[in-house]
Amino acid sequence: MARGKAGNNQEIDMLHGRIWTKVLRYALPVAATGILEQLFNASGIMIVGNFSQGDGTAAVAAVGSNAPVTGLILNLFIGIALGANVVIANAIGRGSRDAVRKAVHTSIVTALIGGAVVAVIGELLAGPLLGMLNVTDEVFPLALTYLRIYLLGMPVILLYNFEAAIFRSVGDTQAPLAVLAVSGVLNVTMGLILVILFHLGVAGVATATVIANIASSMILLYRLVHTDAAIHVNLRELGIDPLTLRQIMRIGLPAGVQSAVFAVANIIIQAAINSLGTVVMAASSAAFNIEIIAYYVLNSFSQACATFTGQNYGARQIGRCRRVLGICILEDFIATASTIAVVLLFGHSLLALFDATPEVIAVGYTRLVMVFSAYTFSMLYEVMSGYLRGFGISLAPALLTVAGVVGVRITWIEFVFPMHRTFETIMIVYPISLAATAVLIGIALLCYRPSKRFAGQPANA
């Protein structure tokens, strides 16, 4: 396998040429994929809010109250998928086709097994999990229905995310985007049919989500089977290589924990939000579906930083790794600031798409302003964490994120919120916790100095 050479015109040669334009070519489709996925998810909330029989606000709150639980699961496994991304990227940089083959096939099987295990455990714990979130009595049955159906689709949901990571390891970020566009249209169409014609409410949008993920995962699997690139999948070779799995988990599990701690912290915050009533729950749910768009933009450059660093570290181009970090931070700042400005400008109108109730819009916009004020810090530590992961350093960012995010937020909700039980009191913890985390990750980067530490060492991920 020629090192750094693209296998098709959608792949990106990360080892040669201008980094600036190639990072954009990588990051923007990743951001678009995340945004498109969130828009399709948000469409489900819009559908139940506007077309379901009964209390639309309760239906919106039911779907939104599940976000921390589903986010916890998805973030954990998306982090593990990122570990597969880095391992494959590093192997490509080294020119090891055999290592690429083992990592690809191990990733596919890991996704399926992990999804099956999560589905079984999740079904058993669905009720208690929602109980921990203080979901109100009027919302609880709807929320439980949605969660149980969603969990049944975990094998295919995780499979799609691992397949997307495989494509991104070679710089092909367009294939996951194109497939998501197709499955997303299916998601919306099925959701409208099941809610409007069959009156299934939250069960309908959950079922539509599972069907769409079946379609997207199968299309990507078909492409992997029929590609002649290094990431080709041979169904008869599917299995787990223990050494490769350990490499993936060494990088991916801490990265997954780092992402999952946000969901843990959000579960704690969601419980506090739920205690303030259905209107606040609905407003927070609507705002979350908007603000996550800006998060996908900033996080896409973190993924780009990890993948570009992983390939260049594998090829022993350490100086290029340093340039990747600087360029990703600068481009991420510009892209994130632009996205936030647009969202805040049209925030009231966007919130009205979910629920036009004036009280919901007012509370939701408060959340947008408070959370976006913290996104500069989030952008910095996400890119720095991606850079460290590209060198195989994954545990330290995870531990520091636990301290900076979960530690601060648990302390705040436990001790400060009870004294001032307002929505604003909850929201101010976002800038505080993310600023603390950015400082901690920055200190870790200065201490590790990976470009010097690994300059003379083998590049095995």
From TrEMBL:
Nuclease among keywords: no
Membrane disposition: Multi-pass membrane protein
Spans traversing the lipid bilayer: 72-92, 104-126, 146-165, 177-198, 204-225, 251-273, 279-298, 324-354, 360-381, 393-413, 425-448
Pfam families for this protein: MatE
CDD domains in UniProt: MATE_yoeA_like (cd13138)
GO molecular function ontology, one term from the record: antiporter activity
Any Gene Ontology CC annotation: plasma membrane
Primary location group: membrane
Localization of this protein: Cell membrane
UniProt GO BP: monoatomic ion transport
Top-level taxon of origin: Bacteria
Keyword terms of this UniProt record: Antiport, Cell membrane, Ion transport, Membrane, Transmembrane, Transmembrane helix, Transport
Protein's job: Multidrug efflux pump.
Family: Belongs to the multi antimicrobial extrusion (MATE) (TC 2.A.66.1) family.
Name of the protein in its database record: Probable multidrug resistance protein NorM
